[in-house]
Predict the structure of ATP-binding protein.
Amino acid sequence: MILGRSERGKPPVEPVTLKILVAGGFGVGKTTCVGAVSEIRPLRTEEVLTEAGRPVDDTRGVESKHTTTVAMDFGRITLREDLVLYLFGTPGQHRFWFLWDELASGALGAVVLVDTRRLEDCFAAVDYFERRSIPFVVAVNCFEGAARHPAEDVRQALDLDPDVPVVLCDARERESVKEVLVTVVRHAMTYAADRDRSVTT
Ligand SMILES: Nc1nc2c(ncn2[C@@H]2O[C@H](COP(=O)(O)OP(=O)(O)OP(=O)(O)O)[C@@H](O)[C@H]2O)c(=O)[nH]1
Ligand SMILES: [Mg+2]
């Protein structure tokens, strides 16, 4: 039987795909975060932390950590039928930072994950996105045993612009990470709209 035009369902929507980076210092939970939300088996590039790396790989606070990302994490999440995010987790250690420019190319926005016990580890990521005018949100990964700091204290300590969202999250929880991603997409959209307005006026 041939379906008439009015009987055909809605045409399938071609989703918009956006690239989001997940950045932050060493061992802050970037790989965990991408793995928690990805609907495909995330691509990981983990290598075992070795004895030789001990002087440079600071695992304080994440003593159970045995591997580290050496290139990137990759995952995908469908936020809405018409909106798909490609997630790129960056390597946390400074010796792999040469990869960041490649990963950042074409990114709509970024999540900077922070651990309040080692706040200084995220300074470089915050600087990186500020300098390149890539909109980002700061997501505090609330590890057990770490003191809870109000988001406003984190904002002050990082000297963030007032419009940069600061949210608390648990990198292991899908719903929590999803909320962070919704926040970054909203923020990046507002940022882009403001920028377009200032260009046309
Ligand atoms: N308790 C707790 N542990 C976490 C949380 N997020 C991550 N972890 C643990 O912290 C360690 C570091 O997590 P990763 O996801 O590998 O961190 P990363 O930022 O990708 O690390 P690098 O790629 O090496 O920079 C792992 O042992 C995780 O199981 C969290 O929210 N709470
Ligand atoms: Mg990692």
Notes: Residues 4 and 30 are 50 Å apart (CA to CA). The pocket of magnesium ion (ligand 2) is lined by residues 30-31, 69, 73, 89, 92 (CB under 6 Å). The beta strands are 16-24, 46-48, 67-69, 73-80, 83-89, 109-114, 136-141, 166-169.
